């Protein structure tokens, strides 16, 4: 006989819930009179602003506004990109805390990928991807070629 110890209203849990850590070069923000970003749009604007500049003073333009940190051999982020999109999507569509989900409509259980928040998150990551490069499986971040780094746990050890 199975005894139920507790009951929850949880209908769905993500398989994995790693957090990502932003690393922002304060020296560049100070040099160019920029503020720390408080929104995803501000992160995107900074990435666009810094992309293509000479960020490490080596005399060569072409450095990166945003460096993402995939695991070794991940190609186009493999499964990490979904967690990055989720993290952004949730900030737009899960505004009531844990009492509200964002994957599915709570009444119909229809996927919410046609919602404006998902589209906005996808556009932000498209822009970040276009204004960046990998930073973990290269020396881009540690050699100063990145204005902003974004990393899951365990990939910061080299930094």
Share of residues in helices: 25-40%
Mean pLDDT across all amino acids: 79
Strand count, sense and closure of the main sheet? Answer: 4 strands, mixed
**Element order: H for helix, E for strand:** EHHEHHEE
Strand order of the largest sheet: 1-4-2-3
What is the radius of gyration?
Answer: 18 Å
Query: How far is the first residue's CA from the last residue's CA?
Result: 52 Å
List keywords for this structure.
4 helices; single chain; alpha/beta; 4-stranded mixed beta sheet; 159 residues
What does this structure look like?
It is a single chain. The chain is an alpha/beta fold. It has four helices and four strands, in the order E-H-H-E-H-H-E-E. Helices cover 29% and strands 11% of the residues. The protein starts with 20 loop residues before the first strand and ends in an 8-residue tail after the last strand.
Question: How do the helices and strands line up, and which of them pair or pack?
Answer:
Blueprint: E1 21-24, H1 26-31, H2 40-50, E2 64-68, H3 80-93, H4 116-130, E3 132-134, E4 146-151
Parallel strand pairs: 2-3, 2-4
Antiparallel strand pairs: 1-4
Helix pairs in contact: 2-4, 3-4
């Amino acid at each position: 006989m199975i005894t139920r110890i507790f009951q929850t209203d949880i209908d769905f849990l993500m398989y994995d819930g790693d957090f990502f850590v932003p690393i922002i070069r304060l020296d560049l923000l100070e040099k160019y009179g920029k503020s720390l970003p408080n929104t995803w749009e501000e992160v995107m604007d900074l990435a666009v602003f810094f992309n293509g500049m000479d960020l490490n003073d080596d005399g060569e333009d072409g450095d990166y506004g945003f460096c993402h940190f995939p695991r070794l051999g991940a190609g186009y982020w493999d499964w990490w990109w979904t967690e990055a999109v989720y993290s952004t999507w949730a900030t737009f569509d899960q505004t009531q805390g844990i009492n509200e989900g964002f994957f599915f409509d709570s009444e119909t259980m229809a996927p919410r990928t046609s919602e404006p928040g998902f589209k906005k998150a996808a556009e932000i990551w498209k822009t970040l991807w276009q204004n960046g490069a990998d930073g973990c499986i290269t020396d881009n971040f540690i050699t100063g070629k990145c204005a902003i780094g974004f990393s899951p746990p365990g990939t910061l050890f080299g930094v």
